[in-house]
Amino acid sequence: MSKTSIKIENLSTGYHHKKGNYVVAKKLSADINKGELTCLLGSNGVGKSTLLKTLCGFLPKLEGDVYIEEKNGLEYTPTELAKTLSVVLTEKINLRNMTVTDIVSMGRSPYTDFWGRLRKEDKAIVNQAIKHVGIQHLANRPIQSLSDGERQKMMIAKALAQETAIIILDEPTAFLDYPSKIEMMRLLHDLSRESSKTIFMSTHDLDLALQTSDCIWLLNKETGLHVGTPEDLAIEGTLTNFFESPSLDFNIETGLFGVKSFCNYYIETEGEDGQYKQMLKKALLRNHIQIERAEENLKTIPCKISVCDNTYTVKTKTQTIKCESIRQVLDTVYSVQQEAI
Ligand SMILES: Nc1ncnc2c1ncn2[C@@H]1O[C@H](COP(=O)(O)OP(=O)(O)OP(=O)(O)O)[C@@H](O)[C@H]1O
Description:
- The chain starts with a strand and ends with a helix.
- The chain is an alpha/beta fold.
- The strands form four sheets. A six-stranded mixed beta sheet has the order 6-7-8-3-9-10, sandwiched between helices. The protein has a five-stranded mixed beta sheet with strand order 14-13-15-16-17, with helices on one face.
- The relative contact order is 0.11.
- It is elongated.
- Bound molecules: adenosine-5'-triphosphate.
- The site of adenosine-5'-triphosphate has 11 residues, from strand 2 and helix 1.
- Its main location: membrane.
- It is found in: Cell membrane.
- Pfam families: ABC_tran (PF00005).
- InterPro entries: AAA+_ATPase, ABC_transporter-like_ATP-bd, P-loop_NTPase, Siderophore_ABC-ATPase.
- It comes from Falsiporphyromonas endometrii.
């Protein structure tokens, strides 16, 4: 059995206009594995939503082929496609007087009769889908009263009720607060693992994508698609090249990006390396001060910070100041710095 769930070959995406085609991305070729979480990353306007909509059949392709579960996308009837692939887009649905259960029940439409009547087993699947994403307490709530995170979970429950092998999501973590973003990525990752779903989603949450996805698709206007595990892309240098920016720093040990710090001062420290020293280092770096003399031309701040558990002591030539917080250390170092100028 093939492990490929979606395959694109020389796919060009874009929009048909009367005056001619507007090509967004040209000649893309790549595969998505079954039962994996794959994230599509790329800058604003590069064509992520256009690509997702083309894969779902919402937009006609300009050129090339899309294969879904080994069958050409063009050979699917709408009902067959709806039983194979479900889609969660960012657009808010504007339906009044409908509850969460009503919306999730719409996921059963490929399986119901002309009137959309739910059988006992359909209702059980809907309830199970609602339970799976942990929103049982919202089952009877009108949808206009939901928060963004709750609405996203409801749409994922609808996709689950649709019982498809593939779920495609356009920016499911947009508009969510940070803990909800993490929870959402975890839910999608668990779905790919526990229910063997193929999950393909676009996102701008680079660090979360690098930490949770099995595979990354990087889409670039000039160079097209770069595909690999987050780790392979890091080792090859593709990630650093792709997100090259004077303010971004890629840490090859963690495989994650951070804000680049530019230091012009050095301060001496003593005491054991541990959580408290690490936090001090982080706060000093934000203020352009290093505790390792990594660069030649750093100016030295004339004091020394001793770290002992959660107590910091700043020793200058004339005095010893005990500080109970990093805020206090920074204020003290700042005064020493000012005096030295
Ligand atoms: N209906 C349309 N007709 C013509 N051009 C369009 C249409 N919809 C989008 N575009 C253009 O296609 C390009 C790709 O848009 P798309 O929404 O796919 O980008 P994206 O990577 O998803 O961006 P973002 O990260 O900002 O959501 C953009 O230049 C956009 O202006």
